[in-house]
Amino acid sequence: AAAALAPSAAPAAPTRPVAKVLERGEKYAVLYKPGGVPCHASDYVGRSGLDEYPLLQRGRDALGRRINLVHRLDRGASGCVLCAYGDDDDPVTGALHAALAGARKTYVALTRGEGYLGDRDFKAEGWFTVERAIKNERGTAKNATTDFRWVASTGAADGARASLVVARPRTGRWHQIRRHLNGLSHPILGDSSHGNTRENRLWRTERGFPGARLALHLCRLEVPATAYTPAVDVSCPLPADLRWQVQTHMGGVLAESRAFLAAEAKIDLAVDAAFTSAPPEPEEPPPAMRPKKP
């Protein structure tokens, strides 16, 4: 009886998540940023729990050293993030940042719509370019250019009207891909700033789309060599949460996209199915978020 009344041991403190390292060089590394994880700590994103533990700290824990993020991704987006070792005044950080002007970033986006706008068939056009100025956070319009390729779309028999699109921005304006796709009437799923509120709500309530997620993934990062670092060409597989959405709600889009993504993004949708982040992402949403049965 005395043993039964003895106080139980205190629960172990939760383990802080550590970044997955996609590539590690002598003076740089490429990290995987999961969707919903901020790049840096700030009062805007909060500091209340492990979900807010930013990529910068996760990367420092994984690499065991001080690092600087050379570029950022929106909190809801996922994919490759390049970092340099050292302090803020380290020349490697500046050199890599300058090299980004000649870099090529290949993104995968899941969008609302089946690839048609008026008399345009985006899929039939192959690669095409959008050149439309975008206002920055101070309201100043800046030239912005993005190359797009509609890879696959759902058919009439599918419940969801959606497309898998590859984007390559030539400039780095604020929310550039998100704004350009919205301008084509194909907003990115989960985009609360430039997307469709009704469509986002439907995907979250009926199809289990994660609440803090933006369906935008930087799957390949190519950066030219600098005086301090070799050329970088790193790929990041499609994360489990986005893959589940495509497999479950977008018909044959995954199979139709496989050859193109293998060639252009260097990701194999068959082999990369086992890819998980740290902490692991679920292969499917939790029960409460699964689509309702008819």
Task: Report on this structure.
The protein has 294 residues and is an alpha+beta fold. The protein has seven helices and 14 strands. Strands 1, 2, 3, 4, 5, 8, 11, 12, 13 and 14 form a ten-stranded mixed sheet that branches. The protein is globular, with a radius of gyration of 20 Å. The relative contact order is 0.16.
Features:
alpha+beta; ten-stranded mixed beta sheet; disordered C terminus
Number of helices: 7
Q: What share of the residues does DSSP label as strand, in percent? A: 15-25%
Shape: globular
Mean pLDDT: 85
**In which range does the helix fraction lie?**
10-25%
- The number of strands is 14
Brief digest:
By secondary structure, the chain is of the alpha+beta class. The chain contains seven helices and 14 strands.
What secondary-structure arrangement, pairings included, does this model have?
Elements: H1 2-5, E1 20-24, E2 28-33, H2 55-63, E3 67-69, E4 78-85, H3 91-99, E5 104-112, E6 116-117, E7 120-121, E8 128-131, E9 134-135, E10 141-142, E11 145-153, E12 162-169, H4 176-183, H5 197-206, E13 216-223, E14 232-235, H6 240-249, H7 253-264
Parallel strand pairs: 4-13
Antiparallel strand pairs: 1-2, 2-4, 3-4, 5-12, 5-13, 6-7, 8-11, 9-10, 11-12, 13-14
